[in-house]
Amino acid sequence: MPSAITRRAAVAAIIGSGVAGVTPANATAQVGALAPGFTLTDSNGRKVDLASFRGKTVVLEWTNHECPFVGKHYGSGNMQALQRKWTDQGVVWLTVISSAPGTQGYVSAQEANDLTLKRRAAPTAVLFDPTGQVGHVYGAQTTPHMYVISPQGVLLYMGGIDDKPTTRQEDVKTAKPYVDIALQEATAGKPVSVAVTRAYGCTVKYGM
């Protein structure tokens, strides 16, 4: 797991070098500011550009299928229910995998598609960030780590999926669903009442 200094250095290198796939401007994710732009490849081999979804609310979900905290939300059906609820209302849901090759949670494109089918998940796309560049820019620390972006491209929420930092599936029922609440408020044109929370889960398995 990289230190905070290593992470800052990585972000600085991205900003300074203008690495393809990450927009150097707005290169640190902050609520109330424009969300950092990026282009990543999805599990079907297509390039997905965040900017192409301007005009729609976007959710970013950092994931690692081997993480028990992720397993809690998929095993209970909670994550899939949220994906279906909000994509049915026109929200774009992007699941992001920042696990580096050879680390826990890294999967091939076919394995990602198989997982989507097996778990009956319903994201708009599953995106690969094997270098961790986008994850570092967003400050994604855990799986899951959740973000909500407005139709104008402004970051509205970042943090945990809810307020129960456990691996127990039964806790989903009594948790305060931060992401669901943020989406309800955002899509109704209201300010997000709780915009930053503590994300919980397994550490993102970055390679640098």
Using brief descriptors, characterize the structure shown.
globular; alpha+beta; Glutaredoxin; 208 residues; 28% helix; disordered N terminus; seven-stranded mixed sheet
Write up what this structure looks like.
This protein has 208 residues and is of the alpha+beta class. The protein has one domain: Glutaredoxin. Helices cover 28% and strands 17% of the residues. It contains 6 helices and 9 strands, in the order αβββααβαβαβββαβ. The protein has helices at 4-17, 68-75, 78-87, 109-119, 133-138, 178-187; strands spanning 39-42, 47-49, 58-62, 92-97, 125-128, 142-143, 145-149, 155-159, 202-203. A 7-stranded mixed β-sheet has the order 2-1-5-4-3-7-8. A two-stranded antiparallel sheet has the order 6-9. The longest helix has 14 residues, at 4-17. The chain starts with a helix and ends in a 5-residue tail after the last strand. 39% of the residues are buried. The model is unreliable at 1-27 (pLDDT under 50).
Strand content: 15-25%
Q: Secondary-structure element order, as H and E?
A: HEEEHHEHEHEEEHE
- What average pLDDT do the residues reach? 89
Main sheet characteristics: 7 strands, mixed
Fraction of helical residues: 25-40%
Assembly category: single chain
CATH superfamily: Glutaredoxin
Secondary-structure-derived class: alpha+beta
Give Rg in angstroms: 16 Å
Number of domains: 1
CATH fold name: Glutaredoxin
Q: Class, according to the CATH hierarchy? A: Alpha Beta
Shape: globular
> How many helices in DSSP terms?
6
Structure summary, number of beta strands: 9
Distance between the amino and carboxyl termini: 8 Å
- Order of strands across the main sheet: 2-1-5-4-3-7-8
Named CATH architecture? 3-Layer(aba) Sandwich
Uncertain residue ranges: 1-27
